[in-house]
């Protein structure tokens, strides 16, 4: 880094002083906090994104969103060259950058890191950053801060991609780095053409006509609703009605959205008993989460929730069916058995894990956070991952996709229109429809809709794949949540000593009891999860475990 670069950094850093005592952590999914304190963080993440671009010789993404958090919050996530989350290896550096108290310390940290990581500053490569933001009102000024951060690296270019869903930005980064068409209309075109392909391949005997055409979607008053309004105009065979688009005056994520629906298990605002029996879905604030639900027919505000675990199960059943067609009667020489794997977290309902294992699938658990699930799913030919809250996707390895393409070409020449060829084509269409960069509510929704029609299933048939065990989630405010250290994909507490034993004895009092605690990576709380054979038992187990957390770590304790 030459003198000009250093003075450029120092000069612009002086324009973005951090609030006194700011302490942020990259957490489960980027920095999040009240938007009013994030100017300096955004500026610094602009710098980080530009450095990452120089290091990887690739286009990098910077998304300004706080997802399902309240509207006054905001946040930032970085998308790596493949469209996935920022490499965990760089997370400590992002923490240091965000928390550096003054411009001099910031500069020193950057100089040291550039040296350590050997980041080239020879001008041979132009750093390029794609910036996106959700609909939060604070997004615009935070975008300016991020742009200035990017530009404080001499020669780096910031492209404002406008208001986008998080998965759209990740998709664009991935597409750009693969040299593919990467605009928003290319994204829509890819989704719609692969959806049409799946619809055209629906077997004649499918009871598709019996399925309600209409789907009502809760857009969480955010960006997802806006984008779905665009998509729905280009669809045929599926009627989408979007509620909570944000245009009716509703507030982002307030009493609406996938997080609210999944955690509270009640109807979102704008839905009621007049929607009973109709297939409904809910997106979160940046449209990377999707859950389905149906409104209970009695006049209560209760819903039948069809969560991420059930979306995963639906996808798994469909993929498995296509694989058994394709692999059951292999014609030709080029035969291969795909390794299919399923990835969940400890929040997955126990009944879903049992169901998936019963199907004969390999199921693995990782810690919470898409970065862990995604990395694990990428180890399979086809890896399906979902968090119970509705964030997930299906990953196809490059190796498997090349095999599939070749197989499809071979089958097209020897048995055009055969079931085998159709199965290959369906799998190829799924790989194009479902976002390969990150979980995407919009592409997930289109895949769910296509599969339901393929199966001839109503939302009720789908929901009956298995019966969820009653579960309850609670949050406990403690003095220092980092005092909770867990192991085995967060299912066991290692510290503070004695807490796990105490939790175990509460679990032992319940039939089918399971409970675990972990510090949240996005909120200043310890989360408690409990499930058991009845609602009462799940509630009481969650309450007892929350009391234990409070006793071991409560606000008063040290
Ligand atoms: C129980 C739960 O839903 N946790 C969520 C939540 O993380 P926490 O670390 O639990 O706060 O936000 C993450 C980012 O959206 C998401 O990946 C994760 O699943
Ligand atoms: Mg989200």
Automatic annotation (TrEMBL):
Q: Which residues form the Phosphoacetylglucosamine mutase AMG1 domain?
A: 182-291, 307-457
This chain's protein is named Phosphoacetylglucosamine mutase
Task: Give the record's pathway.
Answer: Nucleotide-sugar biosynthesis; UDP-N-acetyl-alpha-D-glucosamine biosynthesis; N-acetyl-alpha-D-glucosamine 1-phosphate from alpha-D-glucosamine 6-phosphate (route I): step 2/2
The record ties this protein, via PANTHER family, to: PHOSPHOACETYLGLUCOSAMINE MUTASE (PTHR45955:SF1)
Q: Which domain of life is it from?
A: Eukaryota
Give the cofactor binding note.
Answer: Binds 1 Mg(2+) ion per subunit.
Protein EC: 5.4.2.3
What family does this belong to?
Belongs to the phosphohexose mutase family.
Recorded hits in CDD domains, A to Z, give: PGM3
Q: Which residues form the Alpha-D-phosphohexomutase C-terminal domain?
A: 494-547
Which catalytic reaction applies to this protein? N-acetyl-alpha-D-glucosamine 1-phosphate = N-acetyl-D-glucosamine 6-phosphate
Give the organism the record lists. Answer: Acer yangbiense
């Amino acid at each position: 880094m030459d003198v000009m670069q250093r003075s450029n950094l120092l000069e612009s850093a002086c324009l973005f002083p951090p609030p006194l005592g700011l302490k942020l952590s990259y957490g489960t999914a980027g920095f999040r906090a009240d938007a009013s304190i994030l100017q300096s963080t955004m500026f610094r993440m602009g710098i980080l994104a530009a450095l990452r671009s120089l290091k990887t010789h690739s286009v990098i993404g910077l998304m300004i969103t706080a997802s399902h958090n309240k509207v006054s919050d905001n946040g930032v996530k970085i998308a790596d060259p493949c469209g996935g989350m920022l490499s965990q290896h760089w997370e400590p550096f992002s923490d240091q950058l965000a928390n550096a108290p003054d411009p001099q310390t910031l500069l020193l940290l950057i100089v040291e890191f550039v040296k350590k990581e050997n980041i080239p500053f020879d001008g041979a490569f132009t750093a390029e950053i794609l910036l996106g933001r959700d609909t939060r009102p604070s997004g615009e000024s935070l975008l300016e801060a991020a742009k200035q951060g990017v530009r404080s690296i001499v020669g780096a270019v910031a492209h404002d991609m406008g208001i986008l869903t998080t998965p759209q930005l990740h998709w664009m980064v991935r597409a750009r780095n693969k040299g593919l068409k990467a605009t928003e209309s290319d994204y829509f075109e890819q989704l719609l053409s692969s959806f049409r392909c799946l619809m055209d391949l629906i077997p004649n005997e499918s009871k598709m006509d019996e399925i309600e055409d209409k789907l009502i979607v809760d857009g969480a008053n955010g960006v997802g609703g806006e984008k779905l309004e665009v998509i729905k105009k280009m669809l045929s065979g599926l009627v989408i009605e979007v509620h909570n688009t944000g245009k009716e005056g509703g507030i982002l994520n307030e009493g609406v959205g996938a997080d609210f629906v999944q955690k509270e298990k009640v109807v979102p605002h704008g839905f009621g008993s007049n929607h009973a029996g109709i297939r409904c879905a809910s997106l979160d604030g940046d449209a990377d989460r999707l859950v389905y639900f149906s409104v209970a027919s009695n006049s209560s505000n209760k819903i039948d929730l069809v969560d991420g675990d059930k979306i995963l199960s639906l996808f798994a059943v469909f993929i498995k069916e296509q694989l058994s067609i394709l692999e059951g009667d292999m014609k030709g020489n080029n035969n291969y058995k795909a390794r299919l794997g399923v990835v969940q977290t400890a929040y997955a309902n126990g009944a879903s894990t049992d169901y998936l294992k019963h199907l004969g699938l390999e199921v693995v658990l990782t810690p919470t956070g898409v970065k862990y699930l995604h990395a694990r799913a990428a180890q399979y030919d086809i890896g399906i991952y979902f968090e119970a809250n509705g964030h997930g996707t299906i990953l196809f390895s490059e190796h498997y996709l090349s095999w599939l393409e070749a197989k499809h070409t071979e089958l097209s020449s020897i048995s055009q229109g055969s079931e085998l060829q159709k199965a290959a084509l369906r799998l190829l269409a799924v790989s194009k429809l479902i976002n390969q960069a990150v979980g995407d509510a919009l592409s997930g929704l289109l895949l769910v809709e296509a599969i339901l029609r393929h199966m001839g299933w109503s939302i009720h048939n789908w929901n009956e794949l298995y019966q969820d065990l009653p579960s309850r989630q609670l949050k406990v405010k403690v003095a220092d949540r980092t005092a909770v250290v867990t192991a085995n994909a967060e299912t066991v507490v290692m510290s503070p000593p004695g807490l796990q034993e105490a939790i175990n004895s509460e679990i032992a009092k319940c039939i089918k009891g399971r409970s675990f605690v972990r510090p949240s990576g996005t909120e200043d709380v310890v989360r408690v999860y409990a499930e058991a054979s009845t609602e009462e038992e799940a509630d009481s187990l969650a309450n007892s475990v929350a009391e234990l957390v409070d006793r071991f770590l409560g606000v008063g304790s040290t």
